Amino acid sequence: MENHELPLVNGRALINTGSRLEPADEVGLAFLTGQVMRTGGTQKHTPDKLNQILEQRAASVESVIGGTSGSAAFEALTEDVDTVFGLFAEVLQQPAFAANQLELAKTQMKGGIARRNDSPDQIARREFDN
What we know:
Layout: E1 8-15, H1 29-39, H2 47-56, E2 60-65, E3 70-77, H3 81-93, H4 99-114, H5 120-129
Antiparallel strand pairs: 1-3, 2-3
Helix pairs in contact: 1-4
């Protein structure tokens, strides 16, 4: 939808995947894949370089995998769309899954699991979903 007051371009790719497809002995694999697909850099750009390029342009590229689907999205100023769309395509087609970013994501996931009973709201939501 065109808006001349705010020259932003954004897009999203939907991916037919999800945690519903992960093996029972690898619970969490889909979530980690979705997170590290973006934070782990690409074959052409290290995670730090990718972050730097996006920050310099006030742009974003994000990825996530949920229960029934995955998605990746980008947002950029019109003048930067060629560069950012190229990075978006790299994240989708050539993710590097940097080992240090994978370990960080695992540590964060473990911390989330350890804190999951700290909130009655989270307990109720989790029990309701089962």
